């Protein structure tokens, strides 16, 4: 049952997680993840056939409210946190060549 | 009696009676901060000038009769993952090191409306991921009872600040035990309410289906008073619940007559420290003397809670933390080549090791091919754990057990072995999976002089029963 995490898996997870790991971090991540998955595999001891997955503990239906603006214009405060700003907008690196 | 020694409720009484002012209270807290903060490091951000100004405004409103509640004029510390308008909110992470929220969390707004005065923001494990406050990007917090030991986590700064008198009460957040465990390690009262009781609006999300904000206080009466202020339906949080039974202070009855208390045998097995076991069983005995019917039972499934929790919490974390992309707020890497390289470098430089570990695990268990085997499996186990609690609460009003297997570990001992650290959450974590309310109340000290906490778990919406049991115990133990 010992899990082994391949270089390809770590590279793939890095893409999903948007993380760039150093070689050293990759090796540590392979070991950490394999250890955790070994541990999580313990859940397979339980028979869960026919059990509904529970994402929320209470039977909550969709919660609706009227789409009414209640906050004021806080653009200045919001943009003050932006690493890049131009003409009252977020400035991001070029996305389309 | 020195002002710093008063509980929050007693301090507010004294201020209302004219025996002290809100400014005196702020000064008293900052005197404690000046004496100890260099050693303890409970806070990430302190706002002395702002706190004094807010205290003056609150004092005017108390004197005019506009403010008369049980928290009016009382200084509070807020965990640094709870947004405070105009005040840094970093989650103890480099990636949010310069983030100043344009709005306040609903819990913060509720406290301010009640006249509480915010002193600053407390240290925590980065993004609440950790059990010792050692994963903070801004240095460790030390346990006020013994500075060679951790305060617990992730709300370690809040718990230590309350224990050290550097505030009169504090807010924390609890995803898998992050209020109860540091409360236990620091010898204060800490409570995680029923999921949905306190709005999560403005709480920086970690595991959204598990996160709850709650109080850390000097005693049980303060805990009930703070929870009464925090609990309210909020349209800005779609999981917020409309409750009518939020008069929690009505449960402060120094008697446990008629309460049925169950002791899960599975919580007293291998791995539990002998001194912790003895102290918690002694608390059970005291409650029995106060009229409770106490008996042992089998809860079952206890050892499956941690693997289910880390699967679900990591999955939710990997999704929630996608928002930290170097565009809208926080840190952006100085050197990059194009958009995607900027994302990756920003996140890799901005997040610490434990956060990356959980994002990676979460991304994996949600990825196609593994989703059913890991994530869905964990959600099914969560359903079984909830069912086990439902059955237990047919027989008992309160479940009593330890908060953690040991007292506070030494600084530097926990991060080497993540799984071992995760195992320390064994008694607290299933409460979050099942959405239950639970409270940690001090029940003694070990030979090293470190506090021990007893955990009281209630059925959903039954905060009053655990508050009553905790209050009855506390009053009996004081005498």
CATH topology of the domain at 7-45 in chain A: Histone, subunit A
**Category from helices, strands and their pairing of chain B:** alpha/beta
- What level of helicity do the residues of chain B show? 25-40%
User: Could you tell me the number of beta strands of chain B?
Assistant: 11
- Numbering strands along the chain, what is their spatial order in the largest sheet of chain B? 1-3-2-4-6-5-10-11-9-7-8
Mean pLDDT of chain B: 97
Q: Tell me the CATH architecture of the domain at 7-45 in chain A.
A: Orthogonal Bundle
Structure description:
The complex is a heterodimer of chains A (97) and B (479). Chain A is mostly helical and 97 residues long. Chain A has a domain at 7-45: Histone, subunit A, CATH 1.10.20. Chain A is built from 3 helices and 2 strands. Chain A has helices at 7-17, 23-40, 75-79; strands spanning 85-86, 89-90. Chain A has a two-stranded antiparallel ribbon. In chain A, a hairpin with a 2-residue loop joins strand 1 (85-86) and strand 2. Chain B has a domain at 3-251: Amidase signature (AS) domain (Amidase signature (AS) enzymes, Alpha-Beta Complex). In chain B, 39% of the residues lie in helices and 13% in strands. Chain B is built from 15 helices and 11 strands. Chain B has an 11-stranded mixed beta sheet, with helices on both faces. In chain B, helix 8 links the parallel strand 7 (260-264) and strand 8. In chain B, helix 7 packs antiparallel against helix 15 and helix 9 (305-320) crosses helix 12 (371-395). The two termini of chain B are 19 Å apart. The model of chain B has no long low-confidence stretch (mean pLDDT 97). The interface between A and B is large, with 52 and 68 residues.
């Amino acid at each position: 049952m010992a899990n082994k995490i391949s270089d390809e898996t770590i590279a793939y997870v890095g893409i999903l997680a948007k993380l760039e790991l150093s070689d050293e971090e990759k090796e540590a991540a392979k070991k950490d993840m394999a250890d955790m998955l070994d541990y999580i595999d313990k859940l397979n001891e339980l028979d869960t056939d026919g059990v509904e997955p529970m994402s929320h503990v209470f039977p909550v239906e969709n919660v609706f409210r009227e789409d009414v603006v209640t906050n004021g214009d806080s653009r200045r405060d919001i943009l003050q946190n932006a690493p890049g700003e131009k003409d009252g907008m977020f400035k991001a690196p070029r996305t389309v060549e | 009696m020195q002002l710093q020694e008063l509980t929050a409720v007693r301090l507010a009484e004294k201020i209302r009676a004219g025996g002290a002012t809100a400014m005196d209270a702020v000064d008293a807290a900052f005197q404690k901060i000046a004496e100890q903060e260099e050693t303890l490091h409970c806070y990430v951000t302190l706002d002395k000038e702002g706190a004094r100004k807010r205290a003056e405004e609150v004092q005017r409103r108390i004197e005019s009769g506009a403010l008369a509640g049980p928290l009016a004029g009382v200084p509070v510390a807020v965990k640094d993952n709870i947004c405070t308008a105009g005040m840094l909110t970093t989650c103890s992470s480099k990636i949010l090191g310069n983030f100043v929220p344009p709005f306040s969390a609903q819990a913060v707004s509720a406290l301010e409306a009640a006249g509480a005065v915010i002193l600053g923001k407390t240290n925590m494990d980065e993004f609440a991921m950790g059990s010792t406050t050692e994963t903070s990007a801004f240095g460790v917090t030390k346990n006020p009872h013994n500075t060679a030991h951790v305060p617990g986590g992730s709300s370690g700064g809040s718990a230590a600040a309350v224990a050290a008198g550097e505030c009169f009460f504090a807010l924390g957040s609890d995803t898998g035990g992050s209020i109860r465990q540091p409360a236990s390690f620091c010898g204060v009262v800490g409570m995680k309410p029923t999921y949905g009781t306190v709005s999560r609006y403005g709480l920086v999300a970690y595991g959204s289906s598990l996160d709850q904000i709650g109080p850390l206080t000097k005693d049980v009466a303060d805990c009930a008073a703070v929870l009464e202020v925090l609990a309210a339906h909020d349209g800005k949080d779609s999981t917020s619940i409309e409750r009518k039974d939020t008069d929690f202070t009505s449960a402060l009855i120094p008697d446990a007559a008629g309460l049925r208390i169950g002791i899960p045998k599975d919580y007293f097995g291998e791995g539990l420290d002998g001194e912790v076991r003895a102290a918690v069983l002694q608390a059970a005995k005291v409650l029995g003397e106060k009229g409770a019917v106490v008996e042992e039972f089998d809860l079952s499934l206890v050892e499956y809670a941690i693997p289910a929790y880390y699967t679900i919490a990591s999955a939710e974390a990997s999704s929630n933390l996608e928002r930290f992309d170097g565009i809208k707020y926080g840190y952006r890497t100085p050197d990059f080549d194009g958009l995607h390289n900027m994302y990756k470098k920003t996140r890799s430089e901005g997040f610490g090791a434990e956060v990356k570990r959980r994002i990676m695990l979460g991304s994996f268990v949600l990825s196609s091919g593994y989703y059913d085997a890991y994530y869905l499996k964990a959600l099914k186990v969560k359903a079984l754990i909830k069912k086990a609690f439902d059955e237990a609460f047919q027989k008992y009003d309160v479940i009593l057990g330890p908060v953690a297997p040991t007292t506070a570990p030494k600084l530097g001992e926990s991060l080497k072995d993540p799984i071992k650290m995760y195992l320390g959450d064994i008694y607290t974590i299933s409460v979050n999976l099942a959405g239950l309310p639970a409270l940690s109340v001090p029940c003694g000290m070990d030979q090293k002089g470190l506090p021990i906490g007893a955990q009281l778990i209630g059925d959903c919406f039954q905060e009053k029963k655990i508050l009553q049991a905790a209050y009855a115990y506390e009053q009996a133990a004081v005498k």
